[in-house]
Amino acid sequence: MTEAKTPKEFFEKVLPSRFNPDKAGGIDVTVQVNIVGSNGGDWVVTIKNRQLKAEEGTHPSPTLELKMTETDYMDLINGKISGEKAFLAGKLRFKGNIALALKLRETGFL
């Protein structure tokens, strides 16, 4: 698994290669990711019709919202902490359908 060094590198280079469209059947989601830190930022990830699109910015009405510090987010996407552990430890703030978020893990997104 390729390890990302910054959120921008993850969204632009690692996520597109890690994404598994075979596991994305039936998923139609817009995720707002807010990352707090010097290399953080706001990202919108859309998965629809087995295709993934990630871009910097904000979405007015996302299906899911995730907010984390840059350090915790990097640990999450690089496999050092699970989404469940991050959430239970208060490192991940989340809004939306938890079952849908868990399905995203299979696609390579979380």
What are its keywords?
110 residues, alpha+beta, Nonspecific Lipid-transfer Protein, Chain A, five-stranded mixed β-sheet
Round the Cα radius of gyration to an integer and report it.
13 Å
Shape descriptor reads globular
Low-confidence blocks of residues:
none
Portion in helices: 25-40%
Question: Regarding CATH, which class?
Answer: Alpha Beta
Number of helices: 4
What's the helix-strand series?
HEEEEHHEH
Molecular structure report:
The protein is an alpha+beta fold and 110 residues long. A five-stranded mixed sheet has the order 3-2-1-4-5. It has one domain: Nonspecific Lipid-transfer Protein, Chain A (2-Layer Sandwich). It has four helices and five strands; from the N terminus they run αββββααβα.
What is the structure about, briefly put?
The protein is α+β, with helices and mostly antiparallel strands and 110 residues long.
Strand and helix layout:
Elements: H1 7-18, E1 29-36, E2 41-48, E3 51-56, E4 64-69, H2 70-77, H3 83-88, E5 93-95, H4 98-107
